[in-house]
Amino acid sequence: MFALAALALVVAAGCSHISPPVAVEPLPEATGAPSVVLTGQPALDGGSAPGRTPSAEPGDSGSTSGSGSSLGSAPSDNTVRSWYYTPNTQHRPPAVPSAASALLARYRGRYLGPDRRLVYLTFDAGYENGQTARILDALARNGVKATFFVTESYVRANPELVRRMVREGHVVGNHSATHPSMPSLARDAAAFARELSRVEDAFAEVTGARLAHVFRPPKGEYSALSLYRTAALGYESVFWSFAHRDWVVDDQPPVDVTVKRILDGSHPGAIYLLHAVSSSDADALDEAIAGLRKQGYGFGTLGK
Predict the structure, then answer these.
(1) Contact 37/86 with Cβ under 8 angstroms?
(2) Least enclosed by CB within 10 Å: which of 96, 132, 200, 297?
(3) Which has the higher per-residue pLDDT, 33 or 301?
(4) Hey, how many other C-beta atoms are within 10 angstroms of the C-beta on 25?
(5) Domain range summary for the chain, segments of one domain joined by +
(6) Cα–Cα distance between 120 and 139 in angstroms, integer?
(7) Tens of pLDDT along 156-170?
(8) Which residues are catalytic?
């Protein structure tokens, strides 16, 4: 079993640096289990469930039904929070703090997919290093659609890849224009809106299409106010229930380790956070997809 770090690390999704450790409050519903911030987490060596057919589990939290018309007034709370969860070894959705679940429910956020019979592959794309085409090739070979979260600079620097994502039926969502911590902009509604609209404009220029209104908060950082601003702009904030250390391009995990992490971390409605710069993820996709199908899962996308 991979050892879980007892220390929570905040990781800039899509970037190659790690922020200083951040103390987190232990989860009362997971006493004795270490709390981990998602992007820095080595996946557990969980018990396998070959041949298991997942069932829908409507009692699980992780999705929201809020809408811009029912958000009410803007909250005053702009406390910066880092998304984290407590994983388990039973192929069950991870535990998250009740306060985080409440904020997601109030302001249109999710960390689990809407259909618990499926899993959801998502890729953060902040810059290009030659792996995205390989990822798209693997997805095409296996007939799987994914969700890509792109920055403005990624769209403008890689128009052909972005057009290919659209052409091959993938969903392209918003990862912000400049990859800031969104709470840092939340007090200025206009600046916050520009951070999202710039990606929309770049995407429309490159593809002639409308960007899907799903948003991956950079660095996994959020606040009540930033979630409110995102929802008020018509977006759903998409967090995740699986991540591993795949973003450091010169220190990639072995492919067999990546495959094992992905399969051991499966659970109904799992949203996988992966990075489009990862050669290990690109190499692992064929085997990982086959293994997830053997476990009984299909694949879905987020947003429209």
Answers:
(1) no
(2) 200
(3) 301
(4) 8
(5) 28-300
(6) 12
(7) 999 999 999 999 999
(8) 124, 275
